[in-house]
Amino acid sequence: MGDPRVEKLADMLVNYSVGIKPGDKAIIEGNELSKPLITAIYQKVLEADAYPYLSLTLTGLEEVFYRVASDGQLQYIHDPTRVLVDTYDADFYIQSDANTKRLSTVDPQKIAKFRKGRRQLMDHFYERAGRGEMRWVYTFFPTEGHAQHAEMSLDEYTDFVFNACMPDPNDPVAYWKRIAESQEKTVAWLKGKQDVHVVGPETDLTLSIKDRPFISCACHINVPDGEIFCGPVENSINGHVLFSYPAIYLGHEVIGVRLWFENGRVVKATADKNKEYLLATLDMDEGARSVGEFAIGTNEGIQKFTGEILFDEKIGGSFHMALGASYPESGGVNKSAIHWDMICDLRNGGEIMVDGTTLYKNGKFTLNL
């Protein structure tokens, strides 16, 4: 007998997160490891009188591609892929990996060429999403590989995943609606504010959010969710930051990342492990050294770092920044082939001040809104 939580999660994804409507054309992406959730989503989309399209792959093919593909093949985009991005209404992407380190030995330049080749396509995807023409959700199905990476048993990790996605298993949608209402109060308070100052261990950053809206995330695009974010003014970031947790991107783990900013750009970067990969990624394109996102994590059900960014960036008591591409709906205009989230724990002496008022201290919001 299957896990009943799978069907409940699928129902939330289809009918709340994406909000499938009759007649919608919906892409479902994943691999064989996420078959139970893919099947449940497929059925729910059909029940909603919409049209599911399966875009599936097999574990191991990605490694074959990067090992064998020529430069032309790395940057080639098939016509059906363009049609999906140009004309479909919804996209469900389910992440599930047998081996989280599968790309760690791939030449970073090959990954860079692949992502550069898809940059225009992804810009168009996010532009359509910003206009409400493409509703999408990125979620996760637990595997043995991710459980090992998180240093848990598969049963423990499965419980962790479902508890993070559906903290109230009896009525997950009602829970996320309550979170949305609470976060919208903070977003409303931030409207019209300008200057942000973040301090913490080896961290002292200033940035501007003038005319940049914060967006509340409550399980419509990421599942699990729990954050508020904006696209900071691109040339406004100054200071330095130490990211508390390993920064993981495309299977590469960079530990002890320290960045120094001047007028919005990274002018110095160091790391205790994999510094070469960090620097290579920062030099991927013109926008990779600028920040596309500033965010505060609000999911109190996620307190442990697991090495999976979908969960880790939501850790209650943290903030994160993403190097690279902005989301257009956040007011950001930075363009890049990368979007690399890096997380900083603020629960031990951290503080976020906005226009001189303390908004956040030791990992908690301080205003009674």
Total number of strands: 19
Give the uncertain stretches in residue-range form.
none
- Please state roughly what percent of the residues sit in beta strands, choosing from under 5%, 5-15%, 15-25%, 25-35%, 35-45% or over 45%: 25-35%
If helices are DSSP runs of H or I spanning 4 or more residues, what is the number of helices? 11
The percent of residues in helical segments reads: 25-40%
How far do the termini sit from each other?
A: 45 Å
SS content category: alpha+beta
Element order: H for helix, E for strand: HEHEHHHEHEHHHEEEEEEEEEHEHEEEEE
Average of the residue pLDDT scores:
94
The coarse overall form would be globular
Largest sheet: 8 strands, antiparallel
Strand order of the largest sheet: 13-12-9-6-5-17-18-19
Which assembly state applies to the chains in this document? single chain
- Rg, nearest Å: 20 Å
Taken together, the total number of domains comes to: 2
